[in-house]
Each structure stands twice: as C-alpha cells, then as structure tokens.
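Example record used in the benchmark description.
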Amino acid sequence: MECKAISQSTGIQRIHRPTRAARRAQSLIRYHVDAGNIQRPKTCEECGATGRIEAAHFNYNEPLRVRWLCCSCHRRWDKRKPKNGTFVVANQDLASISTNTEEFTGRKAERTAAQKPEAQPAEVTA
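Model output (structure tokens):
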C-alpha cells in the first residue's frame, strides 16, 4: 500500500520485475504442485483464511522451502522480511502517460482507416 500512496502523491510509479532466482523458484513450485508432488493447502498458515493461497519462499536459493500464505499475509511477510526478489525496472511519471481517450475507438477498422490516407479513384482510360 505504501508504494500506491507514494505513486498517488508524487505521480511517479515504480515498475518492479522479479529476479531470475525468484522466477526460477516460483516456476519450480508451480511444476511440483501441478505434478502432484507438493499439495497446496486450503488455508493460510498465518491467519487461517481460505481462498487464494500462495507459496511464500524463505529464500530463493532453497526453492522448495516455502510457507503457504494468503495474499495479504504474503505481502505483509515480504514487507517485514524482504528477500530482494524484485528489482526496479523504471520510475514512470504518470503525468507523462497520455490519458486522452477521444482518439481511441476500440475498433481496429476505424483505427486503420484513420491512419491510412484515402485512396484516390483510378482514372479510367479507354
């Protein structure tokens, strides 16, 4: 929530991407869950909530050592004990992003017709 508040007050949004080790660990957990080697529990280890339960890694160098937490507990735990699983790609100024929606129609045919010059009728020679 802190990043969202900073973004709203300063107009700058940070874009984060996972590190290679984090992607590898997440992929390995996904593979083992899909293969049936690891069973995803139905409840959060922290608060007991049901719903979407995520694998929270203790260390990305030990990809199969995880806690199973709900989204909110996972975010809270990552803020308390960051594991440097992401890096900042860019700081994007939200004011520089065009919010003009008048030009956008949502229809591809109209967009392409607006971009192409109108064709001139061919002269008929006899």
